[in-house]
Amino acid sequence: MGASRGARGSGVIYEVFRLERKGQPFQHAGSIEAPDAVFAEWYAREQYGRRGESVALWVVPREAIAEIDEFVDELERNYHRVDGYPLKEKLKEARERAGTAAAGDR
Amino acid sequence: MTDQEFLEYVQGGGQVETHDELPDEYRAKLIKFIEMHGNSELMGVLPEREWILRAPTLQRKLALTAKVQDEVGHSQLIYRVVEDLGKPREQCLDDLISGKSKFHNVFHYPTKTWGDVGVIAWLVDAAAIISQKALLKCSYAPYARIMKKICWEESFHILHGRDVILTLMNGTDEQRELVQEALNRWWGPLMQFHGNPIPREEDPMYIWRIKSQGNEEARQQFLDGYVPQVWELGLTVPDAKLRKNDDGVWEYSEPDWDELKHVVTGHGPKTEERLGLRRTTREETAWVRRAVLAEAA
Fold first, then answer.
1. Are B223 and B123 in contact (CB under 8 A)?
2. Any B CB within 8 A of A20 CB
3. Does residue B241 belong to the interface with chain A, where contact is any CB pair within 8 Å?
4. For chain A, does the N or the C end have fewer beta carbons within 10 angstroms?
């Protein structure tokens, strides 16, 4: 068994990810509650693979997933981000200097 | 985020996840709405279950059994979402069988003939899929995600229902009559299905963007999609007022809202019997749940 007991006491919560076609990314489909990994596998097959809608499933105990949802940019490293490259304004200026600016830009 | 900021966020198309901070009112509305959906999937199999043993061919028996299995599967997925919001499945089931929570009006009615089975799989599922497609953009993302699978399976059921109806309509006069009579029985409940025409801006489920369309929009979409399909088979819709106006809006006789209220509050012709069956099966299968948990312990 891959996980400790879930919050509800009667089973473990597993997140299910499904692959619709080879070559595509696995996508989160939903969750199931099962007493152990063996039941989880069968519940996942029934819920997410019975109609041939998936070619593969990942069944992961929810507690095994480490979620990171804060991305603090303390050093303001804007060269890592799209907004660090304000091309639009610079292009406008460059076009003006080159005399190639469209009527709408002036 | 304040409740007001949250409201603006979801109204702007924003979606949230299980572990995000949710306003209490939003969480309560979500639980109520999603729980009723789960109840409806679970109770919705009972009218069809009555026909598994009486299905006209082995193929139909297997198809109907598979549909029943799909719908129960939907209720399991949906109750799982409710559990993550804080209400355990056992409590949902307690509230369902005690009559404290509700399920959709159409599942409180009897199924008289095989024609009813066809009308349910075709038109009740069609009405349901219109409501469910309006949940694909639900502000609560885990619910929206499982709806993808549910909608896909529901379209499959409509196929099955349409095939049942077409087979009957290509049969004897008696079979054709069976379909017409079933349609007459189901039209009233179908017209009530999407609820009273409350403007969407006043509908809390729309305000919180749990669903993305109003009741009347859903009903118009149903009429627009399916009345022509009913007519082309030579069937008569039992509403003399029904017509599509030049502006594209369907006109119809006022549905019986008192009946809707009466039925969904637990007074439908089959409410007691079906809840009783749910109660009995829950007791009879308790040992399975205990055994499964003991096995894994």
1. no
2. no
3. no
4. C
Domain B3-296 CATH class label = mainly alpha
* pLDDT above 90 (res A101): no
Q: Do residue B83 and residue A8 have CB atoms under 8 angstroms apart?
A: yes
- Starting at the edge strand found earlier in the chain, the sheet holding A56-61 runs A27-34, A12-19, A56-61
User: Which is it for the CA torsion B67, B73, B77, B83, positive or negative?
Assistant: positive
Q: Is the pTM of this model over 0.90?
A: no
Span B233-284, pLDDT tens digits: 999 999 999 999 999 999 999 999 999 999 999 999 999 999 999 999 999 9
AA letter at B229: Q
Which residue in the set B81, B152, B296 is minimally distant from A35, CB to CB? Answer: B296
Residue A99 main-chain phi, psi, to 5 deg: 70, 25
Contact A33 B80 (CB under 8 A): yes
Q: How far, in Å, CA of B115 to CA of B178, rounded? A: 5
What's the length of chain B?
A: 297
Strands, E, within chain B: which ranges?
243-244, 250-251
Please judge whether B81 and A28 are an interchain contact, meaning their C-beta atoms are less than 8 angstroms apart.
Answer: no
In chain A, what residues touch B149 (CB-CB under 8 Å)?
29-30, 48, 53
Is the pLDDT confidence value at A5 over 50?
A: no
Cβ–Cβ of B80/A35 closer than 8 Å? no
User: In chain B, what is the straight-line distance between the N-terminal and C-terminal CA atoms, in Å?
Assistant: 41
Domains of chain A, each with CATH number or no CATH: 12-64 (3.10.20.520)
Taking residues A36-65, what's their average pLDDT?
93
Q: Which helix (H) or strand (E) holds B35?
A: helix B24-49
